[in-house]
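Feature request disguised as a bug: please show the residue count (180) next to Alkyl hydroperoxide reductase AhpD in the output. Example input:
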Amino acid sequence: MALETLRGSLPAYAKDLKLNIGSVTSSSTLSEQQLWGTVLASAAATRSQRTLAELAEEAREHLSEEAFDAALGAASIMGMNNVFYRAKHLLHGAYDDLRASLRMQIIGKPGVDRVDFELWSLAVSSINGCGACLESHEQVVREAGLTREQVFDALRVAAVVAGVAQAVEIDATLGAASLA
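Example output, currently without the count:
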């Protein structure tokens, strides 16, 4: 089980993360697809190769191929959108009259239930720190019927996955430095 391998590899200083990754993936108000899509999209957003590899292996056991691809699509498109819309927002309306002219068809046709894709986009936006995208995706999922608790669970998953990825990368960097 890849999740257990990842948990077992976390250093002692990341004990809280070890416990949290277990709890957020075992008890949730999210459907299985929503949960594991959030895990996968969040792992991709962290840019940690090991975290993504381990959690992708686990996510494959819970997601259809379409959902797996859509979660990675959410991470990818938000990688672009979070940079663009965060910058546009930080420039306080100076460019609001201009069209983005960026291709984003996956948002309209993600290959899964749109609310799930939007939830994954919200989780990625929280990791990437784009308040404009975070607000936009939160509004869409709430209007589609997701509860505050479901949104909160997705944010908790994103936060824990980001923390796990950080601990994994710290450990890898320090381990590589001690070998040099």
